[in-house]
Amino acid sequence: MVLKVAVYTRISRDDEGDGLGVARQREDCERLAELRGWDVARVYEDNDVSAFKRNVRRPEFELVLSDLADGLIDGVVAYDLDRLARQPRDLERLIDLYDERKRRMFATVTNDVNLSTADGRTMARVMVAFANKSSHDASRRIQRKHLELARQGKSSGGPAPYGWLKGGRKVDLEAAEHIRAAQRQLLAGVRIGTIRTDWQRRGLGHPRQGTKRTAHHHLEHMLTNPRLCGYRTYRGEILLDDEGQPVIGEWEVINTVEEWEAVCAVVVERKQKDPSRSFARKYLLSGIARCGLCHTKIRGQVNKRWKPGSKAATFTYQCSVVNGGCGQVGRVGDPVDEFIIGLVLAEQRQKAAGSAVDPVEQWPKLSELAAVEADVAELTRAARDQRITVSTLLQLLPDLERRRDELKLERGRFNKERQQTESLSADIGEDFRSLPIERQQALILHSLSAVLIHPAGRGKRKFDPSLIEPVWH
Length: 473
What we know:
Strand order of the largest sheet: 2-1-3-4
Order of helices and strands: EHEHEHHEHHHHEEHEEEEHHHHEE
Number of strands: 12
Strand content: 5-15%
C-alpha cells in the first residue's frame, strides 16, 4: 500500500508576494517523497507567515495536524524542521500525533529526523529549542535596529504602504488622491464601512492584497496613519525625539498635520459616542425628521403594500409607537426628501454666493501648546544635563504631558470642524443623489437641526409642503 503524505511549506516573509520561496521548498519536498516511494496527497502552504510569533495562527499547519489526526494523511514532509515548528508547543502537538500511531512517516530535506522514535523526538526537541533561541536573538537584534532607524526617521524596510511608490519615499499621486478623497468623505460624515465597500468595488487598496477584501481596521489605519503627515512611529506609537517633538520621517507627506489630526478626531469621536452603535442609514431623514404632534424622532420604513412595478410609495416616514411615539403621523417619503433637498441646497448656495472668503482662522490656543511643549523639552534637557534629578522630572513631567495631549486633541477637533465645513461646502456643487447617504445627511444637518412632519388628516391628499416644517439652525 502506497503511503499518502502531506508536503508542508512555509516562509516567514515574502515581501514581493510571488511565492518563490515556498515554491522551491515544494519542489525539493516532492522530490524527496518520490525517492521514498510516497504519494503527495496535498501541499499545505503557509506563505508569509511566522512560526515564531505566538499570536500568529498558521491555518495550513493547523489543517496538517487535523488531517493527521483524522487519518487522511500518513505523514509529513517538510524542507526543514524549523519550517514546521519554531515554538516547542507546536512541536509537542505534532509529537503527540506520532505517539498515537507509530507508523506515521516524517521526513525533511535538510536532515534525517524520525518523530516515530524516542531518539528522533529528543533530537527534534533540541533542534526546535535552538531554532527558538535563534529567533529570539534575531528578534532582539531586529528590534534594536528598527528603533535606531526610527530615531533617524528612516523606514524599516518591507513593502511600501499604500499611498507611496516602491521604496516608500515618493508619494504615489493616484493612491494619495484616493486617500485624501476618502478622508474628505470621512469628514463629511461617511462611515468607514461605506468607503470600504466603495474601495473594494473599485479595486483600491494595498497591491499585495490582490483580490482579498480590505478589513475595516486596515482601511481605518490607512486613513489615520501618522505616516501620512510625516510622523515616524515605533510599535504603533509616534516616536518623540529628545526635545519631545515627533520624529519626522524621510518620505514625502500626503497630509498636513492639521488635516491628519482632523481625520483622527473624527474617528475618535465616533468611537467615544457609542462604540456599539451602527452609523448605517438607509433613508435620508431617518433620525432627523420628527413627529409634529409628539416630537418623537421618525425613521423611514419600507411600505409593505408596495410591489415592484407599481406606482405606490416605496417607503414612508412613520411615527412609531414602538419607538415611543404617538403613531398618528406618517408621510410618503420621496416627496418629503425632494422638498427638503431643494430647500437645503438653495439655502447653502445662497450662503456660498453671498459670503466673502474668510481668512483661515487660527487655533486660539496655539501659543499655549507651544509653551507647554517648550516646558517639556526644557525639563527633559535639564534632567539629561543633571541640573535636576530624575525624581523631580518624574514629578513635574506627567502634568505637562497630560496638558500637552489635551491641547493636541483640542487642536484636532478644531481642525476637524473647520475642514468638515470646507468639505460640506465642496459637496454643494455635486449631484446630491450621487453622494453616499451619510454625506447627504451631513449636508442636511449642516443647515437644519430637525424636520417636523405635521399630520395631514384622513383620506388621500396631494403632497402639501406647508405640513413639512424645516427647523433651521
